[in-house]
Design goal:
Structural class: alpha+beta
Shape: globular
Strand order of the largest sheet: 2-3-4-6
Number of helices: 4
Number of strands: 7
Low-confidence stretches: none
């Protein structure tokens, strides 16, 4: 069973302690459309499935370690993959597609996922969307 959640983007999506959390986790953020070959390879090796392709097709927030490697990612806005469970929402005005997202095993528990998710949702809101699925 697949369950989608609808997120109202009118709420504040700020993470007040973001700077401190990123510093403590030893990561920096990068925002870009698509993904590099090394990003896609990391996502494939860490999570598999269609996530690498979806990230290459959408906008992403990436968390990068000091060496530039990925610690996590969050994709939004991809519409190339029309999965049956989101088909109904793809043509709805004001609704954006969120995901996939993931944080590597060695970086979990440091609030990186929370920051990436909020950044992606805030980006969707700034693009004029009212809701995210």
């Amino acid at each position: 069973m697949i369950v989608n959640m609808m997120v109202d983007l009118s709420a504040s999506l700020a993470t007040d302690d973001e700077v401190e959390l990123l510093k403590a986790a030893g990561v920096s953020l990068e925002h870009r459309h698509g993904a590099t070959e090394s990003d896609v390879a990391w996502i494939r090796a860490t999570f598999g499935g269609e996530w690498p392709n979806e990230s290459a097709a959408g906008w992403n927030w990436f968390a990068r370690d000091a060496d530039g490697g990925l610690a996590g990612f969050c994709t939004y806005g991809q519409r190339s993959y029309r999965w049956w469970w989101i088909e109904h929402w793809l043509d709805q005005p004001g609704v954006g597609i969120f995901g996939p997202m993931g944080v590597g095993p060695s970086s979990r528990g440091r609030q990186i996922g929370r920051i990436l998710a909020r950044r992606a949702l805030a980006s969707m809101k700034s693009n004029g969307l009212a809701r995210a699925i």
